[in-house]
Design brief:
3 helices; disordered N terminus
Length: 133
């Protein structure tokens, strides 16, 4: 009986989880509108609190700049990472710091291109420590 209840609890919990697609910065640059509304993960991208509304993440594969703009942090971001964002990773100059590299999970809601930069917008972004390779 316990085993059946545990299995049922697992199935119910798994049913609430949403599938996430791992996407590289190159893939986002190639098709920025193709992932709108989907939960995606981008690994190893530099993110900062720019000192104004929201958060900014950037990557530059093959010399093309990608910028993610998020209005807020999601509930999956740990307290330690949030503290990093207002400490070591505060201000756009911190985008050059390797310690500001994270794996991010978000749902793109819009995109554009401005001054040679592909910009992707999202209402919230979850950040986690980068996965070791």
């Amino acid at each position: 009986m316990r085993t059946a209840l545990a299995a049922l609890a697992f199935v119910v919990a798994a049913g609430g989880a949403q599938a996430q697609t791992i996407v590289s910065a190159r893939q986002l640059l190639k098709d920025p509108k193709g992932y709108q509304g989907q939960a995606i993960v981008v690994r190893g991208i530099r993110c900062v609190d720019p000192g104004r509304d929201g958060f900014v993440c950037e990557a530059e594969p093959d010399g093309q700049r990608l910028q993610l703009n998020a209005s807020g942090l999601g509930g999956g971001t740990t307290h330690a990472i949030a503290e990093n964002l207002i400490g070591l990773c505060n201000g756009t100059a911190a985008l050059a710091k390797p310690t500001c590299t994270f794996d991010v999970t978000f749902k793109p809601t819009g995109s554009g291109f401005e001054d040679g930069v592909t910009i992707i917008n999202t209402p919230e972004i979850d950040m986690s420590l980068p996965r070791r390779r």
